[in-house]
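USER: Write out one fold?

ASSISTANT:
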Amino acid sequence: MRLTDSHAHLDMYDEDLPAVLARAAESGVRTILAIGIGDGPETMHRALEIAEATGSPDLPTIYASVGIHPQEAGSATPEALAQMASLATNPRCIAIGEIGLDYYHVDNPPIFVQKLAFIAQMQLAAAARKPILIHCRTSELATAQAKEKFAEADAWEDLLGLIEQYWKPTGLSGILHCFSGTLEQARRSLDAGFYLSFAGNSTYPKAVDLREAAAYAPADRILVETDAPFLAPVPLRGQRNEPAFVAHTAAALAEVRGVSTETLAELTSQNFQRLFGINS
């Protein structure tokens, strides 16, 4: 079985990263996209360093992204964006992200700051001809303070509007990472040319909407991820997540779609390769 983890924060592991990667290989994970947001722009290079340093045939092939998370949107300075553009020229950097909008935490930057950072990074990705990795989190389930701060603003509506204006005209694609929207938001994302990537939260008992979206997604536009070290899937929920656990999410999505786990694993791996134009 060949699995691809399309979104993992490998730079959040410490001394046990070699063991984490070995367990991933044992579980059938052949490819991992390491997300390069770091703790902010000053450390967004770390995922790329991991990708460049990991070349054993016994371990997964690692690619990297580079980006400024919406929580760090205030740090999207001209200098930080120039650093991103430089890192994006590395052949191991295959995407820009994760980028987008997040109205969930009260201490997140104001909406206009997030939007400016998102637009700037879409423009950078367009210039680099790289797909983008989208993060979108609304304030619907946030604290009362966050709801008050972001008021009636809808991160999904804002995000899809900006994508329609600034990204769709480029003809490039991308990924709605850890897709957590509604069926209608899935449809609109697909119409904009995106792939939907499902993480461990799609296996949770109450995540009926996510499983409906996973069943709805076209076969050539679905991916699977861990978002490790976050969102460990059932039956490992509550543990530190890691790329090996993507096999559980793949099995859950396969059941939803009425195919074997092996078929779902191969399908999502082929989709990843096609999106990024790679052969490993």
Summary: The longest strand covers residues 93-102. The first helix runs from residue 17 to 26. The chain has one domain: 3-276. The chain has a mean pLDDT of 95.
